[in-house]
Structure formats: C-alpha cells, structure tokens
C-alpha cells in the first residue's frame, strides 16, 4: 500500500520580515498622529486659523523743496506724536484705554460733536439708555422692520439718541469730554492702521509719561510725526500749495483715485499747486508690514515687507533771493501807485521772470491788497498764482505779435509804411494812436507804439479797405487768422506750465470790424501774465515757444539735513512750437523792441535808456472795464479803467532773462503813474545787481542759462517721442 507523502507549507522568512516592517511603520505613524493631535493639536489649530492678508502701510515724511541755488524752501519739522492702533480691541477695551490716556495728556475737545456726546452717554449709561425705549416702542418697531434685525437695531439706537436730553448731556464733565475726544480718535481709524491721537503741542512731559506707561495703554504708541515748514514764510506760498492735515486725510472727491494707489484714508496729500501737481513724487514710499492674525483678529506676528523712504525732493527753477526782492518791489510800488493815482480800484500787480531759452521760471510774484476780515485794515496778500489764474486786456504789449502776423499773412512786408492819423469808421468813435505820428515803418511803429499801424495791418489781413467816415468791412475769418497766429506765441492758449488751474483767457464774441482793430492792440481778448512772459520769450529767443516750468529737477532724498541727493529726473527744455518766419522778420521786431527802451522817443526810454544791461521790450496800456472784487458796487455800468503791462528781455543782443509785468485797473482817467515801467525797471535792476553780487562772491557758477543751441535736434527728438507714443 502506497502512502502519500504530506507536504509541509511555510511562509518564507523574507516575507515575514516585510510584514514586520509594515507593522512597525504603521505603529510609528499611529504614534506620530497621536503626538500631533494630543501634544501639538492646539498649536496646529491656531496655525490653520491664521490669516496673512492684512498689510499695513506706515506713512513717511514728504519730500523737500529747494530753490535753484540749493536753499531749502519747504521742509518737514519733526514733532512728537501719540498714536493708537486698533489691533482688534472691543469697544469697552478702547474706552478703558482712553480713560487711562486722558489722565496723562491734555486733549482738545473742540472737535467733539453732539452726536459723539450722545454715543458716549449711551456707553456710560447703558441701563438708563435701555429705559428710553419702552416695550410698546419695541413692538411697534419690530412690526415695522419684521425680519430685518439690522434695520431694527439701527432704528432702536436712533430713537434712543433722539430721546437723550440736553440736561443729560450736560452731566458730562470736562474730563468726560476729554476721554470722549481721545476715544473719538481711537474709533476714527482703521483696523491695524496707526491713527494719530495727538500731534500738536505734545509736551515733552506728555511724551515721556505716555512712553513710560505703554504697558497699560494697549494699542497706544509714541512716535515722531512731521508737519510742513516754509523757510521763507509766505513768499511764493500760494504756488507751493498746501497739504491736507491728518484729520482731513484724503480729499473726498479724490478718494477712489488715491485708494487705488495704495494710500490710506488718513494719509496727508498735496491739495493744491506744486504739492498736488507733484504728489506722487513728494509722497514717498511707505513702509509696509504684514500683520498675521487669527480668526478673532488678534495679531500673532508682524512681518516687515518693505522699508519706507521719504518722498523725493524737488529743486525749483525759482531763485528765492530774487523772488523776495521782486515781491518787495511789487509791494512798495503798488502802495506808491495806489496813493499817487488816487484810485480805490488798483489792488494788484504781477511779475514773471523767465529764462527765454529753457522756460525755467526764475520768479513768479504777485501781490494783492485785501481787507482783513477781523480788523478791517488793508493788508498785502501773496497772489503769485494770479500770474496764471487771472487774465486781462494787456494793451500794446502784443504789438510784436501783430507785426509778425502781418508778415506771415502778407498783409505787410518788412519796411511797409503807413500814415499814422486818426481813423473814423462810420458809426463808431474815432480810433487813433496816442499821438499823430505821420509816416511810420514797422520798426518805428513798435518804438512809438502806433495803434494806427496795427489797425492798417489787420485791415489788410481781413481784406478790407479803410475810407474816412465809411463802413469798414473785414472778413470774419481774420479773427481766427490773428488768434491762431497769436497762439503760436502763447497768447490766448495754455502755456503748459507745470501747475494746475491755468486759465487761457476770454475771447471776444463779436466779429464786428471795430473789435478786429481792438484785438490788434490787445484791447479785446484777455491774457495772463504768464502768457505775456512766454510771448516775449519767443521774441527774445528768435521764434521758439518754450514750455515754462517751475520744477527744475527731481532728486533722491538724502538723510543729511539740507543736502541734495542724486538727480532722478532733470526737466529738459521743451519747445512747444516754432513760429515759422522768414529770415530777417524777427530781427525787425527785436529792433523795434530795442528802440522802445534804448532810443529817445521810445515809450520806455525814460526809465531804461541808460541801463548797462541794454534791455528791449514793449509797453502796454489798455482801456478796459473794471471787473474786480468791488464790481457789484457799480451795478450794470462798471467804470472804465486802464490796465498797464510791460514785456521785456535783456540784454537785447544776447538775452538771458525775459520779463512780464501786469498791473490791472492801474488808474482811471488820465493820471498815469507808470507803475508797469517803475516795477519793471526795479525788477531788472534787481536781477542784474544780484548777478553782479554773486559774481563778486564767486557764486555765479550756480546760475543756469541753458540755451537751446541746436533747436532742430530738440524738435526732432520731441517729434520722434511723439510718434513712439502714438
């Protein structure tokens, strides 16, 4: 009998080892999971609940402003400040901190409103506040706002506010109001953003005692804030502009614009002129930190992102020593003219000095006499902005543009002679020059300021023909022809200056022929003094309309006081257009302007004929109607006044400075004080005297007369840049 042999089964040793290894790994994993859950569970839970999307910007001081010679014009004055940052504190916690802080500092209560007082009264008297709403009131409101808990709570709170009496509010003590003023600052900020509680007149004692008690003042900190400081007082103040206060923050009308550019609501920004125009340059780069919080809003960690840097500095083209002297001259001559002319209407005068080759504004001054509202006394006020924001009839100063327009249109040729005599157009008053000059060519027409020569010129431009006591017919298109030509010189158009709110002037609406004649002598359309400065610069430099600018350079800020950093951007001369003229045309106008000031018989020879700086220029007197601040006193018939102007450049052979002077409403009747010439003479004297003085001291190396030597290259470069933009 065959017996079957039974087979013995077994697991290989290596497979057992594999099972054992897997068992060990699972055991270790279970142990690790236990450790994570039991030992570190709370820590990891907090990590999961963290949110890292709260970025806070810390403001930095604004950039400084310097004049062309490196003198500080606008700076930042450091001042002690106390701030509060809401790191997720509850209402009662903030109120408690406000009460503690009120015992350490003095806080003005003038900004506390009645609504603030009522809110505070409710917080201090919750039980009494609750009694002001009866059960019946609640039922009525619940019925009205059924299902809308948010609106119901709002209505109950408003009703409570309405029922707080004056007697109850009077229970608030002076100390209560001080606490309220501080609490009000606490709640006006934004979460995790420092809010200034006090930065005016923080005494060293207050600063020290708050610093010593920060451990019991949650969210409160002491720091250094800044405010704008104007080294030259009110000199040029209106042009420099203003900055909003920490209370004002961002202007409401520009809130979205600034918020989209990473500003905070309580940031201080430029709100007028240079401060506003160059806001993005002056504002600087704010320091950024990331606050890591949990879901409850508690700050777990603060992580720096970028360091802050104060704003870049501006170097202005203005010479502040010259500016101060020009303002002094205007004040003195304005008072003198007002006294001698005997007119109550004269109240202002303006001066612009410009480099005719670069457009750099060397001085932009204006003064206005106003009544102090408190004292009723007349005071002198800065009105430098009037050079670009107000326009007037300027008179004969524009005659250089009229002559050149005549050349361009073929109405006259160099050397054309007209007989200067009174013109009588049917149905209109006699139009004439201030004297009958007889035969005059174009150059002497400028020298003697002949009106009739200009009349004959524009009559030819309009295709008309003058006959004594006969109607005058002129093609209406002549108005556009003359105005378009004037615009080539900067008259009646924006000059392009780097300041906001520039006005272009008023263009007369009528196209009657008589007004065409008035337009030719500057007594119809109105122009600003800055336009006059640009216009005479075109004459001075030979035909290039330069864009005026008041900022010369943008520089990196340096930590050292009052030192200039590396140049970031230099404002290059910009030619807006070239007046297309044939050879010799501009020479004749320049010769006419030279004779005005350097030859006997010229309208400005009396004051300028002996000057060693050899000026050239053109005077202007315009008959106008008064339209100033006292206009309402005269009803429908404002009085006739005379506006005075003067455009000039010097030296006549190689100009380095161009000047425009404008004195509106200078006098009435025939009493001409000549304030335009008196101011202009003293201003040019001051410019060249200052230059000589600096030359003696060895400081003239700072002066910049940057002529555009090769204008074709400049124009070609600008045209290439324009094409690239397109």
From TrEMBL:
Pathway: Cell wall biogenesis; peptidoglycan biosynthesis. SUPFAM superfamilies: beta-lactamase/transpeptidase-like, Penicillin binding protein dimerisation domain. One of its GO terms (cellular component) is plasma membrane. Gene3D superfamilies: DD-peptidase/beta-lactamase superfamily (3.40.710.10), Penicillin-binding protein 2a (Domain 2) (3.90.1310.10), Penicillin-binding protein, N-terminal non-catalytic domain, head sub-domain (1.10.10.1230). It is found in: Cell membrane; Membrane. It is a single-pass membrane protein. Its EC number is 3.4.16.4. It catalyses: Preferential cleavage: (Ac)2-L-Lys-D-Ala-|-D-Ala. Also transpeptidation of peptidyl-alanyl moieties that are N-acyl substituents of D-alanine. InterPro entries: Beta-lactam/transpept, Beta-lactam/transpept-like, PBP_dimer, PBP_dimer_sf, PCN-bd_Tpept. Residues 694-726 are annotated as: Disordered. Residues 694-710 have a biased composition (Basic and acidic residues). Residues 131-158 form a coiled coil. Residues 350-682 form the Penicillin-binding protein transpeptidase domain. The keyword Transmembrane helix applies. GO terms for molecular function: penicillin binding; peptidoglycan L,D-transpeptidase activity; serine-type D-Ala-D-Ala carboxypeptidase activity. Keywords: Cell membrane, Cell shape, Cell wall biogenesis/degradation, Coiled coil, Membrane, Peptidoglycan synthesis, Transmembrane, Transmembrane helix. The keyword NAD does not apply. Belongs to the transpeptidase family. This is serine-type D-Ala-D-Ala carboxypeptidase. It comes from Cytobacillus firmus (Bacillus firmus).
């Amino acid at each position: 009998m065959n017996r079957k042999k039974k087979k013995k089964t077994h697991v290989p040793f290596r497979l057992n080892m594999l099972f054992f290894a897997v068992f060990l790994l699972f055991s270790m994993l279970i142990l690790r999971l236990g450790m994570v859950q039991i030992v570190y569970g709370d820590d990891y839970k907090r990590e999961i609940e963290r949110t890292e999307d709260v970025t806070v910007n810390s403001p930095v001081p604004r950039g400084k402003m310097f004049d062309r010679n490196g003198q500080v014009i606008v700076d930042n004055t450091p001042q002690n400040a106390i701030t509060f940052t809401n790191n997720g504190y509850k209402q009662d916690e903030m109120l408690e901190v406000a009460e503690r802080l009120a015992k350490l500092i003095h806080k003005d209560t003038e900004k506390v409103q009645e609504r603030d007082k009522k809110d505070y009264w409710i917080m201090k008297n919750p039980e009494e506040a609750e009694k002001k709403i009866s059960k019946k009131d609640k039922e009525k409101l619940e019925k009205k706002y059924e299902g809308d808990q948010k609106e119901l709570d709002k209505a109950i709170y408003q009703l409570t506010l309405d029922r707080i009496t004056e007697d109850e509010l009077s229970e608030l003590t002076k100390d209560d109001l001080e606490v309220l003023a501080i609490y009000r600052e606490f709640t006006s900020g934004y979460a995790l953003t420092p809010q200034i509680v006090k930065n005016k007149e923080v005494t060293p004692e207050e600063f020290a005692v708050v610093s010593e008690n920060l451990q019991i003042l949650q969210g409160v900190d002491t720091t250094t804030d800044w405010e704008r400081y104007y080294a030259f007082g009110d000199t040029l103040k209106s042009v420099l502009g203003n900055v909003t206060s920490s209370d004002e923050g961002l202007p409401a009308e520009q809130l979205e614009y600034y918020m989209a550019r990473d500003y905070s609501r309580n940031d201080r920004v430029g709100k007028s002129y240079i401060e506003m125009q160059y806001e993005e340059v002056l504002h600087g780069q704010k320091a950024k930190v990331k606050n890591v919080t949990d879901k409850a809003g508690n700050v777990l960690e603060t992580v720096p992102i970028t360091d802050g840097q104060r704003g870049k500095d501006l170097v202005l083209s203005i010479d502040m020593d010259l500016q101060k002297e020009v303002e002094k001259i205007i004040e003195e001559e304005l008072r003198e003219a007002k006294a001698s002319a005997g007119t109550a209407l004269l109240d202002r005068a303006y001066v612009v000095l410009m480099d005719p080759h670069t457009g750099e504004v060397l001085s932009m001054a204006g003064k206005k006499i106003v009544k102090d509202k408190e004292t009723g006394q007349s005071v002198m006020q800065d009105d430098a902005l009037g050079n670009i924001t107000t326009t007037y009839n300027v008179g004969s100063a524009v005659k250089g543009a009229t002559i050149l327009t005549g050349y361009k249109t073929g109405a006259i040729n160099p050397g054309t002679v007209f007989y200067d005599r009174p013109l009588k157009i049917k149905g209109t008053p006699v139009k004439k020059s201030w004297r009958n000059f007889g035969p005059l060519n174009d150059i002497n027409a400028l020298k003697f300021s002949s009106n009739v020569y200009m009349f004959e010129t524009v009559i030819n431009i309009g295709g008309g023909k003058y006959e004594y006591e006969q109607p005058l017919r002129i093609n209406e298109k002549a108005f556009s022809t003359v105005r378009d030509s004037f615009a080539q010189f900067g008259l009646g158009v924006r000059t392009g200056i780097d300041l906001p709110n520039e006005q272009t002037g008023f263009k007369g609406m009528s196209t009657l022929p008589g007004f065409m004649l008035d337009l030719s002598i500057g007594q119809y359309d109105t122009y600003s003094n800055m336009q006059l400065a640009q216009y005479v610069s075109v004459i001075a430099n030979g035909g290039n309309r330069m864009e005026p600018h008041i900022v010369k350079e943008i520089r990196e800020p340096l930590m050292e006081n009052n030192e200039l950093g590396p140049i970031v951007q230099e404002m290059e001369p910009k030619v807006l257009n070239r007046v297309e003229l044939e050879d010799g045309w501009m020479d004749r106008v320049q010769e006419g302007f030279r004779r005005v000031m350097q030859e006997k018989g010229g309208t400005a020879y009396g004051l300028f004929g002996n000057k060693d700086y050899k000026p050239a220029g053109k005077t202007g007197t315009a008959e106008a109607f008064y339209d100033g601040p006292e206009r309402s006193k005269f009803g429908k018939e404002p009085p006739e006044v005379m506006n005075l102007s003067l455009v000039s450049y010097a030296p006549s052979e190689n100009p380095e400075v161009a000047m425009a002077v404008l004195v509106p409403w200078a006098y009435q009747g025939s009493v001409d004080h000549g304030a335009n010439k008196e101011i202009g003479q003293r201003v040019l004297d001051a410019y060249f005297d200052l230059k000589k003085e600096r030359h003696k001291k060895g400081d003239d190396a700072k002066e910049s007369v940057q002529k555009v030597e090769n204008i074709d290259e400049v124009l070609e470069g600008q045209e290439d840049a324009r094409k690239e933009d397109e």
